[in-house]
Amino acid sequence: MSPSLQQIDVLNHRLPLTLASFFRGFLPPVGPVSGCASIRLTILKALLYYGLNVLAILGPRTFLYRLALLPLTLFMAYRAMVSLDFARGFLSTDAGRLEYLNQAMVLTMFTVMTRSLVRTFSSQTPQRCREPSQQLALDAADLTFNLRGVGWNFSASMRVPAPTRSLAPTSAYLVATGKSLAIHIVAFDFLHYFGQLLDPQTVGIYDTTISDPLLRNLRAIVQTLIVGLCIYCAIHIGHDVFSVIGITLLGQSPSQWPPIFDAPWLATSLTEFWAARWHQIFRQEFLALGAKPLSLVAGRPGGVLGAFLASGTLHFVGLWGMGKGTDIRVIYFFLMMGVGVVLEGFWRRFTGRRVGGWMGWVWSCVWLVGCGPLMADPWCLSGIMHSVFLPPIVRPSVWLHKLATSILHS
Q: Membrane-spanning residues where (predicted)?
């Protein structure tokens, strides 16, 4: 067949122009990405988001440039979400034990997407609160990786926990951080090990083989508490690790790394728990994309529910990163947290008093633990409890188990 006839034959097999065929024809195919391609995609995505932060700092005059960059940034982040597979980059077999790496990657990419929207359309130009901006490149880097926005004007109203470690000299802070890191790693490992013992077959927090409903629900409550404590320890570990990196490699000050939590177990209301004592890592996008739009429609109750809806969406998408689908109950959990906060607002309006004291503490515990299975069960069913965070040979819980077993059988 001549070249001209080959070209005609190809034209005869063209697809009708639809939205789906357009994206298939003009955008890179979405599929598994690994090796050098994954590195290139990650670097490109990071540079796009960094560039968007540079433009945001430069102010309103860069709006059209941000608007032009936004679609590409969103697409590259989306492509990373659906194509990068970190788990199989480390384990070629039984990669499911490392699926939490993909979950973390999906959460990161979704955060890049939401913050790109915030940087593009926000009417507030990001500015440092205390020290004047002197180097645009360093400011943009800080804006890119400063998850809570500590020291920036858009987080000026955020309650930052008081320092619990000595900030000077830096060596003292690093030593204290090292101790905290070791304590939370050990605590996480024992909690994780206990969770594995309770759920050896990945059946979730509800074990239908337990006939006694009291014991079955008691097990569910214990497993819910374990999941919550594991999340607390894991976030604490990440904060400690990144603070050491920021201080030792990037020359940051310990004051730029205030505590990530403020003793959440002491909260005497749901409002205090979520607005002050729990971590505020995703606060800026929850407010900008959830609270502010819905507050225009339904006032404060709408704003509260909007913020928790945004939070639920983030965790809903993150659960999908575990490779076993996702679960709408995760969104229900956060909406129920919003309902609880709204009820506290009504209580204050009708009584003139805030929820607080020991009764507020009991109320908060009952609401959190009572709704907790909506979050804990999907997480356990995703296989998170059977992930490998530490090799068995270095797990403190395994050491202790072997020691106890040898003593009992001696």
A: 30-51, 63-80, 302-322, 328-346, 358-376
